[in-house]
Specification:
Blueprint lengths: L3 E2 L16 H16 L3 H17 L7 E2 L4 E3 L4 E9 L9 E8 L6 E3 L4 E9 L10 H5 L2 E8 L4 E8 L6 E3 L6 E2 L4 E5 L3 E8 L3 E2 L6 E2 L5 E4 L2
Antiparallel strand pairs: 1-2, 3-16, 4-5, 4-15, 5-13, 6-12, 7-8, 7-11, 8-9, 9-13, 10-12, 14-16
Length: about 220
């Protein structure tokens, strides 16, 4: 039976919200209040719904992390849309396993570190905004690549990809940072995708179509 642990302090609120969401929530709430004070009932009700949805979107629940040797955890909540064996990639030197996870607007959008190690490089690429569930999104969309050297010396690359609606990628880690498995590292606003590139001998433990949770679901294990 797998063991679990916490890698970060537990939140002190019953409904944790990512700090990046506060400006959106305050703006929506303020607009709603103005509509209500002006007696505009329908716009106020719409504003109340929008405010509630933004709070829902930016939720940031605590997670327990599998304490399992060599386990690689999911960097994102969502649906596994592809698992590929690649001979080469611009995000990885040599053969690798690529796992793609699509996040709809209903998923938690806080991203987490898949395996402990050192951040070797963070590269941001401006680009387009195709729907994140399309294959060309990995190639053409705006994205942010985080290169990690694991504690055992294995290279991993995690790529945050903006989607059709997403217009902001947030990354809270930088070159040289020491990170732990399951640690929060950023988010992507309003629908997006995360690709993770792993060593070719990684043993995947999920299938296309599976639903995964950031920090909790084991994607695979190093051989």
């Amino acid at each position: 039976m797998d063991r679990y642990s916490r890698t970060e302090a537990q939140s002190q609120t019953a409904y944790p919200i990512a700090k990046a969401g506060y400006p959106f929530i305050f703006a929506a709430a303020f607009t709603t209040a103005v509509f209500a004070l002006l007696g505009l009932i329908v716009p106020a009700l719409i504003g109340l719904f929008v405010t509630g949805f933004i709070c829902f979107f930016f939720r940031d629940p605590d997670r327990v992390i599998p304490d399992v040797e060599n386990a690689i955890v999911s960097p994102a909540d969502g649906k596994v849309v592809a698992i590929e064996n690649l001979e080469k990639s611009r995000f990885y030197d040599g053969a690798c396993v690529k796992i793609s996870i699509f996040m709809s607007v209903f998923n938690v959008h806080v991203n987490r570190i898949p395996f402990g190690g050192t951040i070797k490089k963070v590269d941001y690429f401006p680009g387009k905004f195709f729907s994140a569930n399309l294959d060309k999104a990995s190639r053409d969309n705006e994205h942010n690549a985080v290169f990690i050297e694991t504690e055992g010396g294995a290279p991993i690359c995690m790529v945050q990809i903006a989607g059709l609606i997403a217009r902001r990628i947030i990354c809270a880690v930088h070159q040289g940072h020491q990170v732990t498995r399951g640690q929060r590292m950023g988010l992507i606003c309003f629908g997006s995708r995360v690709d993770i590139y792993l060593p070719a001998d990684t043993r995947p433990e999920i299938l296309p179509g599976d639903r995964v949770s950031a920090g909790t679901t084991i994607l695979g294990r190093f051989s």
